Amino acid sequence: MVRTYDPRLVIITLGPHTVQGYADGTFVNIEAHGDGVSKEVGSDGEVVRSIDPDETATVTINIQYGSDTIKFAQEQYDKDRNTHGEAMFPVLIKDMRGGLVFAADEAWVENTVAREFNYEASGREITIATGKALWTDNGYVRAG
Predict the structure, then answer these.
(1) Is residue 64 a part of any domain in this protein?
(2) What's the rounded Cα separation, in Å, for the pair 15 and 73?
(3) For the chain, does the N or the C end have fewer beta carbons within 10 angstroms?
């Protein structure tokens, strides 16, 4: 079976804002928090599994200098700080060709967008933290 991936068909929305101006290379990274499912083995060989209840994630978006997403992210961060936490938004990342879908109803910009200036325009990194997140892969839904 041949599958096709097209980065132009990966859509990222932050509330009402659609991310545009993806950087070259890795433009989004999604990292689950917590330990997932861990095990402990006793002296007699008995095994106990523990399921970590942490279903949160961190989403790192790499975008080009000049993207409107920089302004949106900074405005959300400033609003969150100035309103003492009133700037949460949903996040959705979807591969339109049927691959991964990631979603969280509650997300926020973790920190101000770092600025770096070089001889040529450089990209920007935006870090989004989430509440409970849902992941799907080709129709299979799993939490955290």
Answers:
(1) yes
(2) 11
(3) N
Question: Encoding tokens for residue 41?
Answer: 């083995």
- Closest alpha carbon to 85 in 110, 112, 57: 110
- How many domains, the chain? 1
Which residue do the tokens 């002296």 mark? 43
Output phi, psi for 7, to 5 deg: -60, -25
Residues 139 and 112: beta-carbon distance below 8 Å: no
Mean pLDDT of 30-49: 93
Residue 1 lies in a domain: no
* pTM of the full structure: 0.86
CA distances from 84 to 51, 57, 66 (A): 32, 21, 28
**How many residues are present in the chain?**
144
- The reply to whether 48 falls in a domain is yes
Look at residue 143 in the predicted model and tell me its pLDDT.
Answer: 53
Structure-block tokens of residue 116: 């770096």
What does 114-132 look like in DSSP terms, one character per residue? Answer: P----SS---EEEEEEESS
